[in-house]
Amino acid sequence: MSLPTPEALQHIILQSLEASGSLSDSRELAYNGRLLQSAEEQGVVRAVLDSLASKEMVEYKQITTTTYSLTEEGEGITQNGSHEYRVWEVLPVKGQGEPVGIPELKKRLGDEATKVGQMRAFKNKWIAKDGSGFVRAAEAPVDETAVQMKEIKENGLVAGGEAVVKELQKRKLIQPKKYIHYSISKGPQFSTEVKQLETDLTVEMLQSGAWKDASFKQYNFAAAGQPTDGGALHPLLKVREEFRTIFFDMGFSEMPTNKFVESAFWNFDAMFVPQQHPAREMQDTFYVKDPAKALKPDTDYYERIRKIHEEGGYGSIGYRAPFSREESEKLLLRTHTTSVTTDMLYRLANQPGGFKPAKMFSIDRVFRNETADATHLAEFHQVEGLVADYDITLGHLLAFMQEFFSKTGNHKLRFKPAYNPYTEPSMEVFSYHEGLGKWIEIGNSGIFRPEMLEPMGLPKGVRVLGWGMSLERPTMIKYKIHDIRTLVGHKTDLDQVKKRAAIRLEKGDD
């Protein structure tokens, strides 16, 4: 099948309009004695119409027509009758033969025809139960389904409206087929001759004066421009901004997190993490070789931390283990943003005017010496929040977490006791994931220990509630990403970064 050239099709369209004034259906156009009705042919018609419309020679409107064709099952009904009619057909009239049971129906008609046919025949009241089998309940039913299938096969149309269409599609007897065609009329500049329009005003035209007699193609200000190959926000940044908005809405202020390199003192010691803790091992933490040592912390504060570790205090017996300054001064890539929290709490305790209640949060990168796999990276983001005030309790922590996590779309929560060196009590937070159909861990929480807070200089009645979670997990859930390595790192698809729309975390009920 050869397609007409654009020039030939232009001539056909213009001559048709010249003869009749308008054309209600572009499928009536003919080329070499053949109607142009296929989708491919109508695509060529559209391209030619766009060209003529840009010259204001024609105007056109797109029309979408839906017809229906039979599925394999629908085609079978035209030949053998509907399932319900076939069931009725093999049954005896009551009293004139042995009722036919399900096993026998399956032998004669097959499983599918028996299952569907029996149900619909009962619904139509064509058959009735008789003992352990079935008999006819109607004398000569009309097989309307078969009649419908034959009509649709003949003209592609479904009589009876949208409800009938939905029913037949639900039964998988028909399938829609959409056709796009056009109604065409004359434009303001209609002519049977296509005049070539100039697209550029050249120097030669200006010098010779030829521009005065030239016809120029009009600018199409509605046409889409060339897509820019600019940057795009990474999905993590989009979700990060959502979390920041939630914290700000709850009255939190943001902590500065611009220290990726931290001392072991702030990352571990000041948080009451023992110097013999497994988290400090080389296989879990990235240590810095050069420079190898950090600046010394405040002498008095360092001494109080050393004492709480070695000897105890503030109601604690400590760890009763040697405390090494050399270990404290090691530099490392921070393993959590709680080191930032520790520094901020120390500042709160020692600010001019003394301690004042505060609500703060941070979202930034942390580093762990882990093997990368589908759910773990050596670098990820931690979301952390804290509330510091007088006489607050575990009940306040639970209420804060219910409020916070509901704003992130996690409405069903469970809490499980856990252990952290720097919080007591400590709890892991689980949320029910509807998509996965199971409970998943989404965060950690607790009340900071007196061994951490009181050496800072915070008053005895002050309690600090803290909770945190990764940024990657909610991002992967929201964007349906199954491998974290395709979200962060060299395997990230930059085209997907550009195409992924901004998401909104589901808010809880206010």
TrEMBL record:
List locations, semicolon-separated.
Answer: Cytoplasm
Chief localization: cytoplasm
Q: Where does the record place the Aminoacyl-transfer RNA synthetases class-II family profile domain?
A: 238-489
Which BP terms does GO give this entry? phenylalanyl-tRNA aminoacylation
- The reply on keyword ATP-binding is yes
Q: Which cofactor does it need?
A: Mg(2+)
> Which SUPFAM superfamilies does the annotation name?
Class II aaRS and biotin synthetases
Mind telling me which InterPro entries this protein's record contains? aa-tRNA-synth_II, aa-tRNA-synth_II/BPL/LPL, Phe-tRNA-synth_IIc_asu, Phenylalanyl-tRNA_Synthase, PheRS_DBD3
EC supergroup of this enzyme: ligase
For this record, the Gene Ontology CC terms, alphabetical, are: cytosol; phenylalanine-tRNA ligase complex
Record field: catalytic activity:
tRNA(Phe) + L-phenylalanine + ATP = L-phenylalanyl-tRNA(Phe) + AMP + diphosphate + H(+)
Molecular function, one GO term = metal ion binding
Q: Assembly state and interactors?
A: Tetramer of two alpha and two beta subunits.
**According to its UniProt record, which protein family does this protein belong to?**
Belongs to the class-II aminoacyl-tRNA synthetase family. Phe-tRNA synthetase alpha subunit type 2 subfamily.
User: What is the official name of this protein in its record?
Assistant: Phenylalanine--tRNA ligase alpha subunit
